[in-house]
Each structure stands twice: as structure tokens, then as C-alpha cells.
């Protein structure tokens, strides 16, 4: 009986995610359909692919607004490859770039490149490639000179090459794709994108820059695609300047069959222009335009500041002990925060059940631990990204550098330990789990004074239920027995929390290196907290912070000085980094990720 129900559930899940048609029925070349099946293991298109592929094949400009993890990447790559392979005579390397995919981060660049490589296996004359920050320019120049048919790029580096690499040939450019458009714009790349559109002669609203680099292909032969899991004013503006009479594709989470999809596409098409001309329709945040996977279970946990760290590591312990094969991602607001927690969790030993110190202590968490943030060396970022992908039991500590577009298979739970700020960021962080119909949980940490943030999320149609933290703490064995909370007044005084906090503080206090990391993380955390913008300042009020409790959340017995040398040194370093990266105007909280 149970088996039947499971089967039924599985079927329902599949019909909410996959379309009841084949890739070939969408008009894709048979060899490409084979590659999709054999190299990527895709039996049938997802709903968003079934809807988008025919439209992209038709040559129309498209705006896709679909939930995270619904298969947007193949929705644009497959039709482009289909067209390119059909060119007769065959395209050649020396004809330069035909399609340009713009992505916000280096990791996403590599991820899209890897999928492209697989899809192009049997179309060896179509050359994939990427250019991105952190790589050697000279090597990139050489590759561009040889020719890259489908180029994936981060905006800053692409602009650099457009201006400085004369051998970069793009006069045959036909497609520009903005993948994770919202993130590209949030990172402050709006101006770069406009310049790129100008240099490529692809901006619709303003006169095109004239010069030797403007493409010879007429803009009417261009096809631009914009993909985003969230919509806002900036995305709408980009759509206006880059998309001509686009088809809007947005999927509801509810079940849609293919015939409904086609109807949907058509009805959406007829509204297309109105939608774009009326920003409020596209951008109104209260209409629930944030697409979240319906099977995602979203919870929040209310934790007083001083107990945050003890509670975080207790929840991690509980989750890893409950399921011995799973992956979890924890998001932090700063690189220093990631570094500190990474070192701490990698080394922290504690045996809650040993009666004496003589018995020795054991690793608190028994899983592989990884870290990812923007200040790491490119090779380290790359190897972490690849390693975490293939692990079965692992924890990734990351800044928002991992929040967008990254596809780590089988992530079971997302913990937002430091609050995300903008609701869009929340959506993208949780989007790293519950991908393609898989189950997934998310947990948002809030301090009691921050709970109004739930209302902010509610305005976007995002609702969370409370995580039973006391029950979890009660279930953890301390000195061989569980401790019921009824006898204790609050979470901070729970014997388990007290015991773990004490062990953490002793661990930090005897290790100068850990102490230093904790202090840096504390300072950066306070700075990031003060940098919340607009309305969020009302929720995340720095004045309401008790800095002694914040220090406790970094296992520091004493509060480090915020006016001391190290704070000033860090501020100076941050300004210097900003200058070097030329990002000073881009982000209000630079250096965060
Ligand atoms: N037709 C398909 N059949 C099976 N798996 C698929 C199919 N299409 C995509 N996938 C898988 O689904 C996952 C999500 O795909 P993808 O990363 O393209 O989603 P996305 O919508 O771009 O997500 P995000 O918005 O987070 O970037 C990937 O692991 C991908 O390999």
C-alpha cells in the first residue's frame, strides 16, 4: 500500500516538473536529443524547457521567469546549438563568436561551460569557451583570437576584452543571453551591461555606439534572452533596453500539461508588450513574483544572539546524525565569517558524553567541510566547487558567491545563518536545494529582535514556519542523558547549549590563530550588519545589538574593539581592494562575498 502511494507521489512530482513530451517533439536536432539523453541523462524536457525551447527556436526574444532549479540552462543552450549546427556551410572558428552567455559569477561560468562541452561533444566544429575574472588575460586573448563560437563570460572581463582585445571577433554575434539577470544587476554590473550592449550594437533604446567593433549583423537578426528567478525594476529595465517584443515565459508551480503550456505561452505572448511597458506589473513585489519550488520546506529558528553559534553547530550535528548521507550549505554574510567557521568546524573537538577530559574528545562534526567565498584564490574556488558537487556527505560554508545559479546535486538543506538582506537573496539561497522536484529544507536564523523580517518575506509570498529547536536540543545526549527543557527557562540556559558554548570558548581561547580569526569575523559581521539597506535597517538595527552577545556568537569571551587598529586596518584594506577591483560604486557592501 505504502509502495503504491510512494509511486503515486513520484508520478505527481514528475508531472509537476517534467513535460509529457520529448526533446525531439520540440524541434531539436536528433543528435542533440541523443546528447541530452546520453551525456546529461535527460529523458524528457522540464516544463520550462518545453515552454522555452520552441520559442527560442522561433527566433523571438524571450524573458524567462522560472523557479530555481527548473532547468533554465538547457532551455537556452539547446536551441542555440540546434541552430548553430544547422548552418551550411559549417561554422568555423575564425568566424568568431555567435552566442554570448553572460553570467554573474565565475562558478556559474564554469558550470555552464561544462554543460555546453557535453552538449557539443558530437558538434566538434562549434567551439565553447569562457572568459571570466580571475583568469589570465593573455591566455584568454589567445583563445579569443583562435575563435570561440559560444562564449560564456562574466560582465567585467567581457567588457575588458571588448575594449582591449582587438582580435576578439564578434561581428557574427546572433544571441546574447543574460543568465541570472537579477544577480548580474544586483552585483552592480548594470553599467557594464549597458556598455556591452552598446559596444555590440544591441541596445534598443539609445543610439548605438559607432566604431570598428560594432557587429555587422543587423540587430533584427539578433535574438536576446533574459533569464531570472526573480523580477524587479532593474531586470525590467534591462528587458526594456535589450529585448524586442519578447515572449514572456513564467511558470506557475502548479501542474501544467504541455497543451496548457502552449496556450499559456500564446496568451502570455499577446500580453507581452503591455507587461514590459508597465513596470509595476512585472516588478510589483507583493504579487508573489518570487518563484520558489513548491516542495521546499521553509523554516526559521529564533535564537538569541549569544547562543547563535552553539545552536548552529548543534543543529548541524543533529542533521548529520539523522541522515548519514546528505549535503548542507550554510550561508554567511562575510568572507571572514566563512573562514572562521570553516576553521572552527574543521578542528573543533568535543565529547558531550565523556565523563572526564582523560577520555579524550572526538570531532564534533563528522563530515567533509568546504568553504567558498570571493576572496579565495581562483583555483581553490574551482576545486571546492567541483569537490562539493561530487561528495555525498558534506557541509559547505559560503558567502552569497554560491547563492546564484550554482547547481550542486542533492543538497538537502540550506541554512541561512546570517540573514540574507534582500528577499531576492533569500530566494536564490534557498534555491540551491529542492532542485528539479527533489525534496529540500531551508532554515533561516533570526534573532528575536529581527522577526519582522518574516513579514518582509511574506510580502513576496514567502512564508516560513518555526523550527522546533528546543525539541532538537532536548534530543541531544549530554553526559549520557537527555535534558528536558521544561525545567529550564530559555534556550540560552539549556544545559546542552551552555555546555557547548563553554567548550567553544575554551577551544578558541587557547588558540591564538582561532582567536584572531574570530575577532576578524566579529568585526566584519558587525560591519555587514550595519550595511543593511533601506527598509531593512528598520529590522536589522545595529543599535539593538548587544556587542558582548555578538562576541559570544564567535565564541569570544571578550568583545573585540571596533575602534582599534584591526578595525581600521580592515576598513583600509577594504577600501584598497575596492579601488583595485574598481568596484567602489558597485556595491554598498563590497568585499562581502
Ligand atoms: N530535462 C531534464 N531532465 C533531468 N534533469 C534536468 C533536466 N534539465 C535540467 N536538469 C537538471 O536540473 C538541475 C537544475 O538545472 P539548472 O541549473 O539549469 O536550473 P536553473 O533553473 O538554471 O536553476 P537556477 O535558477 O538556480 O540557476 C541540474 O542538475 C540539471 O542537470
UniProtKB/TrEMBL annotation:
EC number: 3.6.4.13
Substrates-to-products reaction catalysed: ATP + H2O = ADP + phosphate + H(+)
Keywords: ATP-binding, Helicase, Hydrolase, Nucleotide-binding, RNA-binding
Any one GO CC term of the record: nucleus
GO molecular function, one term: ATP hydrolysis activity
Start and end residues of each Helicase ATP-binding domain: 53-249
Pfam families cross-referenced by the UniProt entry: CTE_SPB4, DEAD, Helicase_C
Residue window of motif Q motif: 21-50
Stored PROSITE patterns: DEAD_ATP_HELICASE, HELICASE_ATP_BIND_1, HELICASE_CTER, Q_MOTIF
CDD domains xrefs: DEADc_DDX31, SF2_C_DEAD
Domain notes: The Q motif is unique to and characteristic of the DEAD box family of RNA helicases and controls ATP binding and hydrolysis.
Protein name: ATP-dependent RNA helicase
Organism: Jatropha curcas
Amino acid at each position: 500500500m505504502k509502495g503504491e502511494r510512494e509511486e503515486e507521489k513520484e508520478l505527481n512530482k514528475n508531472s509537476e516538473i517534467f513535460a509529457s513530451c520529448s526533446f525531439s517533439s520540440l524541434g531539436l536536432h536528433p543528435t542533440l536529443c541523443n546528447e541530452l539523453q546520453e551525456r546529461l541523462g535527460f529523458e524528457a524536457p522540464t516544463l520550462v524547457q518545453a515552454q522555452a525551447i520552441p520559442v527560442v527556436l522561433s527566433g523571438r526574444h524571450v524573458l524567462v521567469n522560472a523557479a530555481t532549479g527548473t532547468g533554465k540552462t538547457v532551455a537556452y543552450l539547446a536551441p542555440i546549438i540546434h541552430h548553430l549546427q544547422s548552418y551550411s556551410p559549417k561554422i568555423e572558428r575564425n568566424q568568431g563568436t555567435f552566442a554570448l552567455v553572460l553570467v554573474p559569477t565565475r562558478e556559474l561560468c564554469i558550470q555552464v561551460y561544462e554543460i555546453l562541452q557535453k552538449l557539443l561533444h558530437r558538434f566538434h566544429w562549434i567551439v565553447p569557451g569562457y572568459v571570466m575574472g580571475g583568469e589570465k588575460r593573455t591566455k584568454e586573448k589567445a583563445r579569443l583570437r583562435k575563435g570561440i563560437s559560444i562564449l560564456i563570460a562574466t560582465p567585467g572581463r567581457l567588457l575588458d576584452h571588448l575594449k582591449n582585445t582587438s582580435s576578439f571577433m564578434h561581428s557574427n554575434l546572433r544571441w546574447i543571453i543574460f543568465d541570472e539577470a537579477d544577480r548580474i544587476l544586483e552585483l552592480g554590473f548594470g553599467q557594464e551591461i549597458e556598455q556591452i550592449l552598446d559596444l555590440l550594437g544591441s541596445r534598443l533604446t539609445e543610439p548605438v555606439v559607432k566604431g570598428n567593433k560594432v557587429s555587422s549583423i543587423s540587430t533584427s537578426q539578433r535574438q536576446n534572452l533574459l533569464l531570472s528567478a526573480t523580477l524587479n525594476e532593474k531586470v525590467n529595465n534591462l528587458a526594456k533596453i535589450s529585448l524586442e517584443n519578447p515572449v514572456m515565459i513564467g511558470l506557475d508551480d502548479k501542474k501544467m500539461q504541455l497543451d496548457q503550456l502552449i496556450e499559456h505561452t500564446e496568451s502570455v505572448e499577446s500580453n507581452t508588450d503591455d507587461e514590459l511597458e508597465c513596470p509595476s506589473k512585472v516588478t510589483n513585489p507583493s504579487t508573489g513574483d518570487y518563484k520558489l519550488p513548491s516542495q521546499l520546506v521553509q523554516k526559521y529558528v529564533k535564537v538569541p544572539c549569544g547562543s547563535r553559534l552553539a545552536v548552529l553547530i548543534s543543529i548541524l550535528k543533529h542533521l548529520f546524525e539523522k541522515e548519514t548521507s546528505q549535503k548542507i550549505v550554510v550561508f554567511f554574510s562575510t568572507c571572514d565569517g566563512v573562514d572562521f567557521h570553516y576553521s572552527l568546524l574543521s578542528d573543533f573537538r568535543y565529547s558531550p558524553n565523556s565523563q572526564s577530559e582523560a577520555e579524550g574528545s572526538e570531532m564534533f562534526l563528522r563530515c567533509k567541510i568546504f568553504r567558498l567565498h570571493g576572496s579565495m584564490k581562483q583555483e581553490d574556488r574551482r576545486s571546492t566547487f567541483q569537490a562539493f558537487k561530487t561528495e555525498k556527505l558534506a557541509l559547505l560554508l559560503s558567502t552569497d558567491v554560491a547563492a546564484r545559479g550554482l547547481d550542486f546535486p542533492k543538497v538537502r538543506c540550506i541554512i541561512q545563518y546570517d540573514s540574507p538582506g534582500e528577499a531576492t537573496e533569500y530566494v536564490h539561497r534557498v534555491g540551491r536545494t529542492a532542485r528539479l522536484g527533489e525534496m529540500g529544507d531551508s532554515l533561516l536564523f533570526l534573532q528575536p529582535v529581527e522577526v519582522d523580517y518574516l513579514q518582509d518575506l511574506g510580502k513576496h509570498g514567502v512564508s516560513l514556519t518555526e523550527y522546533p529547536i528546543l525539541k532538537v536540543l532536548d534530543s541531544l545526549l549530554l553526559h549520557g542523558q537527555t535534558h528536558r527543557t521544561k525545567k529550564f527557562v530559555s534556550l540560552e540556559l539549556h544545559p546542552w547549549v551552555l555546555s557547548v558554548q563553554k567548550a567553544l570558548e575554551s577551544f578558541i581561547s587557547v588558540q591564538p590563530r582561532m582567536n584572531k580569526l574570530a575577532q576578524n569575523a566579529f568585526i566584519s559581521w558587525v560591519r555587514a550588519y550595519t550595511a543593511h539597506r533601506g527598509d531593512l535597517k528598520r529590522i536589522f538595527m545595529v543599535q539593538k545589538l548587544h556587542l558582548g552577545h555578538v562576541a559570544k556568537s564567535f565564541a569570544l569571551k571578550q568583545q573585540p574593539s571596533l575602534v582599534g587598529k584591526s578595525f581600521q586596518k580592515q576598513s583600509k584594506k577594504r577600501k584598497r581592494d575596492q579601488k583595485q577591483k574598481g568596484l567602489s560604486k558597485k556595491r554598498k557592501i563590497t568585499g562581502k562575498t
